Amino acid sequence: MKNNNINGCTKKGEKQQLEYNYHVIHKLPPGDSPYVRAKYAQLVEKDPEGAIVLFWKAINAGDRVDSALKDMAVVMKQQDRAEEAIEAIRSFRDRCSKQAQESLDNVLIDLYKKCGKLEEQIELLKQKLRMIYQGEAFNGKPTKTARSHGRKFQVTIKQETSRILGNLGWAYMQQSNYAAAEVVYRKAQQIDPDANKACNLCMCLLKQARYIEARSVLQDVLQGKISGSDDLKSKTRAEELCKELEPFVSLGHTFPSPQLNLEDAFLDGLDQLINQYAPFRSRRLPIFEEISPCRDQLAC
């Protein structure tokens, strides 16, 4: 009998250790709640539909609602149910904490992009810029911790502003509003220049038949002067754009810069925004001191 008890305890201990290792390997939270079962279905069983059902149960049960809503929306997007995911976030984000709102906005932006909802995407990106100008981004902190492929890293307000402007510029490009995209990309490059945005800026100028300016933008990439210039994809794209520009530049074809006119007051609002939040800008967000000389070109 004693040996049976010992063997039983040993097996129970081994089972607990296996379960612990399983959770660690698959990065599952501990416990047996609806949210944990949803993550198990998502990551281990590879059952996205089952995971969505369990995420719904977690939200309704108030179990880790912040994570459940965000994770469910991501799985829905992967299942080509982006419209449904958008409605879910809109309907249930009021149950989430204040700290979760920024990450939910990021998920929404990806969902709008997936659905081709450019106007909604642009408006939300501009809203995120407003929050940065007002000192409300990152919950008032200068940096935040982000994750990518399981790794944590720090993101600064400066980097986040440039990233949002880059996404905004891309959205304008999808609308063929190259003049607006140009302004946004120039702002992004002033803050945190990189090769990918330089190529996009070049494309905006090319579409406006401003070939000499476009080639000038590419030089920083081809000469390796900005971040990402050594990336093979960006370098190849820059070389391809340079070849596309060559016939026009050699003939001296160029046109004057167009007058930018955005009906949504995108250009007019920054003056008011900077004046209104000058104390915040000076105390919390010195990066916007760098933007202010060009405030007549960019607004939220």
TrEMBL record:
Residues 75-128 form a coiled coil. The keyword Coiled coil applies. One of its GO terms (cellular component) is nucleus. It is found in: Nucleus. TPR repeats lie at residues 162-195. SMART domains: TPR. Signal peptide: none annotated. The keyword Ribonucleoprotein does not apply. InterPro entries: MS5/SDI1 (IPR044961), TPR-like_helical_dom_sf (IPR011990), TPR_rpt (IPR019734). Keywords: Coiled coil, Nucleus, Repeat, TPR repeat. Pfam families: TPR_1. Its main location: nucleus. PANTHER family: PROTEIN POLLENLESS 3-LIKE 2 (PTHR36326), PROTEIN SULFUR DEFICIENCY-INDUCED 2 (PTHR36326:SF2). Belongs to the MS5 protein family. This is Protein SULFUR DEFICIENCY-INDUCED 1-like. It comes from Anisodus acutangulus. The lineage of its organism: Eukaryota, Viridiplantae, Streptophyta, Embryophyta, Tracheophyta.
